[in-house]
Each structure stands twice: as C-alpha cells, then as structure tokens.
C-alpha cells in the first residue's frame, strides 16, 4: 500500500504582543517644557522692559519726556487774527489788512548752513544777522519765527530764492500785513503799527477793539517745512477771532483837502506848524482834524516821533482873541450887556499893576460891544467883562469845555489849563477875558465855538461813529455824546451876529479875507503870545488863529484854524482867515449847503 504522505503543519512560535505605542511628544516631554519656560521668561522680560518704560514716561517723569517730544516734532503755529479796519464815515479804508506772510525756519534743517542763511535773510528781509543766526541754530527746535508781517510777495520770493541757492528749512505762513492806503491822510489820528504792536493814534488807543485774538495750530510734524503731519499724532487747533472795525466820523476827501490847504498856508507864511478842525455843527462830529507837519503811516520812521500823533489834541497854547467870543456870550447870557452897549476904550488899561494894551495903537475910541468884537479890542473886552460877578466867567469857560479833555478816546489828548477857583484872581481874569493866561487844544476851542453856532448848546465832539470802547475801558462816540446848554439861544444868536461883523464890517472888521462868497459867515480872529516851556515865559513867538461857522443864521459847519509862529508877521485875519475861507467853501460845496439868502448883520460897531 502505498504510503500516504501527510503534510505536516509547521508550528511557528507565537508572537509576543507588541507593546502600546508611545507618542513622540510624550517621549520628548522634558525638552519641550524647558523651551516653553524659557520662552515665557523672555516674553515676560520684554514686557517688563516695555512696562517699565511706560511707567517712566507716564508716571515718573511725564512732563520732561513730553517736552522732549514737543521740542523734537510738535509744531505750534500762530493763526493770526484779521485786524479790524479803520474806516472813514463813508466806509473808505484808512487802515486795513493786506496780504502778508511770516517767514519761519526748521533749525534741524537750517543748522548746518546757518551762517550763510542768516546772511541771506539779513540781505533779503532786513533781519538782524545775529538774531537770525541764533534762531537758525536753535538746538532741539523744529520751528522758529524769523520775521513776521512781511509782504506776501516778498516773503515768498525770499524763500523760493533761498531754495534755489540750496538753503533748506525755510517756509512761509499767512500773516496779514497792516496797510495804510492813503499815506499821510489822517495819519495823525489813525496812528500805525510797529513790529511790537500799535504805537500811536487810534491803532494804539483802540487796540483791544481792533486786534481780535490769534488762534494756533499744534501738531506733530515729520517736516514742518512741508507740513507733513504724523498719523495719529497731536492735532489741536484753536481758530482765530477777528477784530472789529472802527468807523470814524472823518470824511477822507475833506481831510485830504484840509491837510493840503493847511500845508500851503504854513509853508507860505513860513510858520512853524498848523492845525485845522472841521465839525458838523448839528451833530458835533469831527469831519476833519489836520496837523502840519505830519507823517506817512506807511513809513513812520521817516518822521520825528513828535509828529507821529496829533498836535491838535496834545499841544496846548493860549487861544488869544478867539476867546473873546466866549467871554461876550456869557455876558449876553447874564443880561449884563447888549450888542449895542457903548464902551469908551482908552489907549491903555491898568490891571494888577501892569498895563493892558490893544494890538493896534489908538487914542480914545468909541465902540459898541459889537465893535469891540469886530475890531478885537482887548481893553474893550476887559471893560465889558468887569460886569461879571466873582467866579461867573470861570463857570462859563468850564461849561464851554475849557480845562478838560473833549473825550474823543485818545489818551494823548491834553486837558489844557483853566485855573482852579482857588488860584483865580482879578489880574489873571482880566487877561483870560481876551485869551491869555488860559490854555486850550484845537479841538477844545472848536467845540466851544460850535456851542455858539449850535444855538448855545455844546455837543461833545466825536471822532468815532456809533460807539466803541478804548483800551482804558471808556465808551466813546456819537452814541454817547452829551449835549449841554451853555448860553441861551438869544445870547448865541447875538454873539453870532457880532462875529459876522468881524468879516463884513468895512471899517472895523479885522478878517475880510475869511469871507466865503455868497454866504453869511461868522468868525473871530486870534493872536496870542506863546509860552516857552523851559523859561515859563513869553518868548516873542505867537499863535495866530481864526474860528467861525457858516451860514451865520443856519450854521452847518464850524471851522477852526491855528498857525504857530508865522514868519511873515501876519495875524489871525491875514494868515488863518484865508485858510478858514478855503476850507469852509469846500465843505459847503461838498455837502451841498445852499446860501440862506438872508441879509447879513449890520449891527453898529461905533457910536
């Protein structure tokens, strides 16, 4: 039998269970923990540094670091306010703002070329070299003012030229420039601005009203020159507040004419100086207030400091015989005299141990009170004024406004001199009767005469239309002007008719050259000795004047002219009278005032 072959199953050794697999991270657990701990420690250290720095910046010494940052990058630029305009009564500018600019520098950029740039700026802009050099080298600063209120075209041209020459770090910013378009017209009143602010006139007296308030812009700049600002940096802005306009009662065209006429008269008479004032009789508004010599507000440095204001307000002098009109008006108001009162005038009159004489030699004259005014007799005036009771004359002169400021708002105005009641004596009164031993300014005298023209009512003269408050806190202007009756309507009318005889009396009149063809005109001449401020004595020079109004029976304007020390020997009638005539004629025509057509005064001047 065949033998079966049996395939035997070969037994393999049993496999041992494989151990559970272990994660690699677990296998390397030790090294990972170490790295994490080290990382955390490093992060903590960095955060601690930043935290400490933050505490130092904000807690321990914030101001010093803020200042360092500001000095490095923060720019604080002035945003100039627009200064208010000074306007005439018709809104014409006497002072306004023109296009101007300030020139600025970034010392971080200018420092390396500072000497050359400073020399350039001194040449182009007229700045002081040493001052400019110091600013251009300013350590830690990104912003310096080089010059303010430069004409915009000049400032721009200078900066552009500097760039072409390779000088970096200069730029401009808006800075309005004060402009005086009429030069010397009303410059004595308007004044001017200097580098450090207003220095004279209305510009100075009403600076708070005109100036406004500058604003400013503060920002972080990577380059002040280009104006590039840091994102999310400081950016503060306070807008400027513009100033208010100041409107005057002055008539620009009339002011120009008065100045030219006054200049011609002073030059022709070879006089030292002159003043002229025009007042609207019915309102007290000053239409013109002129001085000669004066100055150009565009170039004040070209004239002496003594001329950079109004001598018509600040310079006092004895008014002379124009004063007689006030003396006589008070007498008429008291009923002590009449225009026809007869006065026998001797050739001299003793007072206080000294003789009083007339300006002309004469024997005994028979004049009416109207004749005393027409012929301007000192002696006749004193004799008439002897009828005053004690203290009465002073009361009238004070009521006419003498001895006190007119209240125009200019601090440079003088109050003049009117002796106090305690210092008043009979000898002085005799001389005050005809305008000596009393001092006035030109506006005071004009306002006093205007009271006679206005029917006996004095109106405070005004230079400001409406009202405005000056730097002293005083509100002035036409809205605040007060009216005060000084003498009666009848006394004022009688005085006006007597003053008319000064011009139209063919025998005794002393100012025929003050006539205005076609119009009735009242006026009074004046000639007074001048007091020398050093010796306190009369020095042989004099002031001649003429003041009056027209038309006599319906006055529209009061004009006063005073000329100091004429070299041709002329008096009030011959020197100041023609100036009065020209100014009054122009004013009447300009405002369309027609002649009244009534008969002129024919009061008798002699007996």
Automatic annotation (TrEMBL):
Subcellular locations according to the entry: Membrane
Signal peptide: none
Similarity comment: Belongs to the transpeptidase family.
SUPFAM superfamilies per UniProt: beta-lactamase/transpeptidase-like, Penicillin binding protein dimerisation domain
Organism the protein comes from: Nocardioides panzhihuensis
GO cellular component, one term: plasma membrane
Pfam families, sorted: PBP_dimer, Transpeptidase
Protein name, per record: Cell division protein FtsI (Penicillin-binding protein 3)
